TrEMBL record:
Its EC number is 2.7.13.3. This is histidine kinase. It is an enzyme of class 2 (transferase). It comes from the Bacteria. Residues 211-263 form the PAC domain. It comes from Methylotenera versatilis (strain 301). InterPro entries: HATPase_C_sf, HATPase_dom, His_kinase_dom, HisK_dim/P_dom, HisK_dim/P_sf, PAC, PAS, PAS-assoc_C. GO terms for molecular function: phosphorelay sensor kinase activity.
Amino acid sequence: MKDSLLTNLSVQTLFDAAADAMLLVDNTGHVVQANAVALELLGYTFEQIIGLEIEALMPKNYRNQHHHHRNTYSKNPEKRPMGKGRDLVALRKDGSELAVDISLSPINTGDQQFVLATLHIADKRRKVEEALKISEERLRLAKEAAGLGVFDFDYRHNIIHWDERMRDIWGEESEESVSYKKFVAAIHPEDRAARQAVIERAIDPASNGEYSVDYRVKNPNDGVERWIATVGRIHFTNGHATRLLGVARDITDQKMLEKTLQEQRAEMEALFKQQVASQTVSAIAHELNQPLAAISAYSEVALHALNSSTFNPENLKHALEGAVAQAQRAGKSLHELLAFMQKGELVTERFELNHVLKEALNIAKGDGYGDFSPLLSLEPAMPEVLGNETQVRKILVNLLRNAVEAMRGAGVPSSAISITVRTNQEINMAHVTIQDSGPGLDAETAKRIFEPFFTTKPTGIGMGLAISRALTESNGGQLWLEQNNKPGATFHFTLPFATLAFAS
Ligand code: ADP
């Protein structure tokens, strides 16, 4: 049965079934058989190709050489590729050329020698090879550019294969593989457990096998410690981890930078805390300075009254009342200041700014800053503002006190402070302007007056304007110094209206 099947199978049928182009050539170099793929490839019909000298199927400049090769081959026929790695070219019927790889197989029928030539299109293979080369080259370049080392841990043999870059980091110059034990030995002892935990999580078949971990590696040759970031994936076979393939990158510089930044941040924080502490102390001093001076003055008056030959209990009473009032105010101020600094929720209320201004004028007077004539220009029936009344009063007192101190310092004879309270239509806010008749400020001083601790006064603390600005802003307004050529200093501040009252 089998035999009869093979008997029926013609050589031509077999030939045509082959996937490669095939030509059977006799010992005179003439084509005696060709399969369908060969006909298609070379562009001949069966009738045209049979009997052709094989050299007719190659470009002219190859032909002479080929006669010689054919003779050599017939003396020592063997199965081998043709051309010994040279590029071979076939000539098609239409004159076009085709790069091919050709394999030769001698067939001996007893009385005659044939050669079977099998042709593959070389272009296709070459293109694939080239593409592979290009992509390998790209990968290599990318790896190099990213400074990546590659490693492949074979679980079964407990061995790690690694590339040059990895070996460089681990200080192993030549070995292409390393035992897992040796690999781990170079890892910083403090980082081993964390690394192991990450890998174990990835080894769990329920995970997606991916892992990423940073650790330190100490090069045993130079003792240099480097930070390495590794990213990899576990490969499983039948639910068991068999390979761990990963890349490693030296991130030492990045880690050092992070460390420096962290240190700088900590330093800045410490400096900031120090500043806050000293500003707090200065703000407290600012609040206590004046009342303490007043209490001391009242006490002296009281002592004087007691020691005086004409003892007058009224004088004593007046001095003690003054001292008590100052002490109480100092306590209250301190309390408010601390509340503000603790940034508790700001208690706001609606109030009449003109009324608070009058209170501030009285306080300034009571504090010994009453030696000026106030020139008031108050908008009648101004809508109520919204803010913390105590804080707004403090802003006004601070500005008035500064104005008086400036005028006193300059020895201005008829000192006046003009105070305007009006609605600023443009921004729909209450707008207060305080202009004194002192010496004003030069440009350099003007630039710095809102800085904490900036003062030009011998006993100044330099916190009054810094606090006043912070208070204005926390009340939703702005405080600024007007830069102008007018005599004296002009300060402005704004406050929001209690919206509902204004809108109605
Ligand atoms: P201090 O009053 O303790 O100096 P301030 O913050 O209140 O602190 O003021 C800072 C500086 O601003 C003052 O030392 C002074 O040089 C300047 N200054 C403030 N107000 C006036 C003003 N009305 N006229 C001139 N200079 C002023």
